[in-house]
Amino acid sequence: MSADQKQDTIRCLVAKVGLDGHDRGAHVIARAFRDAGFEVIYSGLHKSPEEIVQATVQEDVDVLGISILSGAHNALIPKIIDGLKEYGADEDTLVIAGGIIPDEDKDQLKAEGVAEVFGPGTEMEKTIEFVRENVKDR
Amino acid sequence: MNATATSLVEDLLEGDHRALARVITKIENREPGYREIISALYDHTGNADIIGLTGSPGAGKSTLVDKLASHYRDQGLTVGIIAVDPTSPYSGGAVLGDRIRMTSNSGDMDVFFRSMGARGNLGGLSTATGDAVKALDAFGKDKILIETVGAGQNEVDVVKTADTVAVLVPPGSGDAIQTLKAGILEIGDLFVVNKADLEGADRTVQELREMIQMSGDYSAPAGGGHHGIDQSALDSDGEDADEDEPAEWTPQIVETVATDSEGIDELLETLQAHREFLRETGELEAKVRDRNAAEIRNLLRNDVSSLLEDEIERQGGIDELVDAVMARETDPYTIADEIITPIEDCLEDDR
Fold it and tell me: Residue A107 domain-assigned?
């Protein structure tokens, strides 16, 4: 018998990767996630795929949200997912992406392992709901 | 311990980063079985130097931690970092922003950085951080840094799990130093005036110096001894030792500009000096003893309290008991007695 009631909190890394200096959107998402009761770790700007992998593994997040507005998503996101695989972290981490990602790239990203892509104008509730429903069992 | 937990412990001890991360998650979530994991790791702990850093928001803790970690890495040492940030009492959510400052060690897996939300668990935070430190220690980290905002008892308890505590004081916080006197002054083994290139830094150093001088009846002139250990007592080491009073540590003041890595060397030396002081005087063992005592008490307090919660449920729940008090049928003291007496009797019978 112990005092320890299980306290499950969804942990999420909001990541900015590559040469993309715009993080207003990432801030908005981070705050919305926080208000939804998530623990949000923000990576800061201009991170390399390796740094995102390092953070995802060490922080043991349930969700990795990648924000890219630079157009480099096809180059950077697969690198991140490969890195996660290296640490065996790909299977139980929900990877979502947002920012400026053309529709024709979405299928490819999903094939790589991105669970969903959220474009501009997505309602916050929709993203939060998606995370709640799709977070992997651990 | 079930199979998953056993393999998790094995993987952690073999240096698997993901296993370490997962163990800390289990500690944070208090998942069933986490206690057995800590027990299994316990035997492998006790080798790391544990340093706590605290200070007001914006004092530069994260930046300083980043630079310290990078210097330790240069020395070939491995580093574990726990950064605690407040959790919103309203949503239960948190933005953990300390990682943003970790720019000097990017991609270096031998710096294990973990953000933790305070999660508002009463007294549980220090238990959780203490356990996370044990996981890092068992993993084999040489230096473990705990970073937390210095406000409130919770945070004070957290840094108490460290061997050495550094309190960061930004320049120009004259009045802030007044507030430091209560609580924080006692726990600071050294004070770091960060952003020392800013106006008002000299004054802040001066004020800290006065404060330290007044608080302890330290024989050494403030700021005189470079490394804090009462020189007379230390110099006597080997000559006519044991005649002097046991050496006392005078809290030291170090000026840094973390963003430019200025003063980091001196900070490292001071941290090391404190470490050596702790070891030579036996203070370290005393600290570890205190820590163990506090931990045992903490765990028991939590366990007993949950035992009692269960008992309250069995008696019809807290609402029913409160109803009885509201109706003036009984009073809180009587109820407490009624619940605790059978337990006391049980313990008596066991004797």
Answer: yes
Which of B66, B99, B50 has its CA nearest to residue B256?
A: B66
pLDDT per position as a tens digit, A119-138: 998 999 999 999 999 999 88
Least confident of A36-50, B216-230, B268-282: B216-230
Residue with tokens 């003063």: B263
The Cα of B30 is separated from the nearest Cα of chain A by a number of Å equal to 5
Residues of chain A that touch chain B, judged by Cβ-Cβ distance less than 8 Å: 1-9, 11, 30-31, 33-44, 47-48, 50-51, 54-55, 57-60, 87-89, 138
Residues on chain B touching A59 (C-beta within 8 angstroms): 21, 99, 113-115
Residue A5 lies in a domain: no
Under 8 Å between Cβ of B125 and B157: yes
**Structure token pair of residue B67:** 């630079």
Q: Which residues in A lie closer than 8 A to residue B94 (C-beta atoms)?
A: 34, 39-40
To the nearest whole Å, the CA of A136 is away from the closest chain B CA by 14
Number of domains in chain A: 1
Q: What is the pLDDT of residues B146-177, one digit of tens each?
A: 998 766 666 677 777 899 999 898 887 666 66
Flag the least confident range among A22-26, A82-86, B218-222: B218-222
Query: Would A138 be classed as within a structural domain?
Result: no
Helix (H) or strand (E) holding A46, with range, is none
Copy the structure tokens of residue A28.
Answer: 């908005």
What's the CATH code of the domain at A35? Answer: 3.40.50.280
Domain boundaries, chain B: 45-281, 299-350
Q: How far is B124 from chain A (nearest CA, A)?
A: 9
Its CATH class, for the domain covering B45-281, is alpha beta
Q: Which domain holds residue A123?
A: 11-130
Q: What is the pTM of this model?
A: 0.86
Domain-located, residue A37:
yes
Contact assessment for residue A64 and residue A96, using Cβ atoms and an 8 Å cutoff: yes
